[in-house]
Amino acid sequence: MRDLIVIGGGPSGLAAGVSAKAAGRDVLVLEADSxxxxxxxxxxxxxxxxxWGPTTMRLVDPLVxxxxxxxxxLPDVVDADPHTKSKRMLVCSGALAPLPGLPWSLxxxxxxxxxxxxxxxxxxISPPKQAADVTLDVWVRAQLSDAILRNAVDxxxxxxxxxxxxxxxxxxxxxxxxxxxxxxxxxxxxxxxxRKKAGETISPGRLINLRGGMEGIATAAxxxxxxxxxLSTPVRGLVRxxxxxxxxxxxxxxxxxxxxxxxxxHALGPVLAGLDADLARQVETVPYATIALVxxxxxxxxxxxxxxxxxxxxxxxxxxxxxxxLFTSCLFPGRALDGERAITLFVGGRRHQxxxxxxxxxxxxxxxxxxxxxxxxxxxxxxxxxKRIPRAIAQYDxxxxxxxxxxxxxxxxxxxxxxxxxxxxxxxxxxxIARGWIAGKP
Length: 442
Fold this sequence. Notes:
single chain; alpha/beta; FAD/NAD(P)-binding domain; protoporphyrinogen ix oxidase, domain 3; 7-stranded mixed sheet; 19 strands
């Protein structure tokens, strides 16, 4: 009998497995796919690295750095160019405009108007009363303004979640921001000042990738785990027997004293069916956004209007199905040849899900090209590579609201069962790695 079995070999599962192995535990990670890493996928096209999944990772939590070191990925970490990583742009009436920082550092006027400043000050006197499960759009309107929702938060949410602020629960999608307002008695401004008075700072962190792309994290972890990772091993059930767990797979069964559930929610329904039927049905209702990634390299001479920046976001009002773009060669080496710029565009998401599902890749290319021509003045030729990522990002809407409580009840009944799936707990890659690393500890 093993000490631990980890179900799912995505980022959180790999981190859990390496964490357990580093602690001297007899661990086995079971992954249904023929390779580990989940959506972390990288490829070399014409001599240049392309990511078909997470394209950057922000290091703020020191635990994530510890995990990357333990997984064996730290030697390949590459920091983003310090001059471009903080320069974000917004498409505004077909042109690129600099996107200011956090709302409390904005200058009045411009694309955000003046209303947000008065709202912020008034809320410090009379904080708004909002339900615990308020959606993000309602929360932002009450705390700031419709202009900030429309021109900053909505496109930012599309960039992070490929989601819709009218559907996302504010407390689930951006817990740190909501907790800051909670600390100020419901006022965001008072919460900011309270944090500053306590000496707390909001660290921007390091923005990183790996020399060979983000899949290098999975490659390093796979190497570290060795025989403790079993690929092409889908799990079909989980049974509690006395002090042990029986994990049922297509190839047979395994026994362990404890189990970590790190597979994505949509894959956990069959695993949980015999253990908690209600939770099994609940995880299967967690929605996901599908996106298409479009990557291409453009000659610098063909794009006279491209700035040296992180990339740009596209507000809902713009006539495009593109959510945003990343100027990958401005951030990391090895993404383009001399005299070229590499760009990755993110298309679809919840905002344009129906459109993306109804068109072919040529239509995706045409839509991406139309935006680049309008915004960057591009008139040249380039090969546009398209890859669709189904179930790319879990959406923290009302279907997820009761999930944390249901998971807590399950773990209360079964203390040797730990949850490290992608809802709730944060969809970003650092959050997945951190919760997996913690779950693998004794």
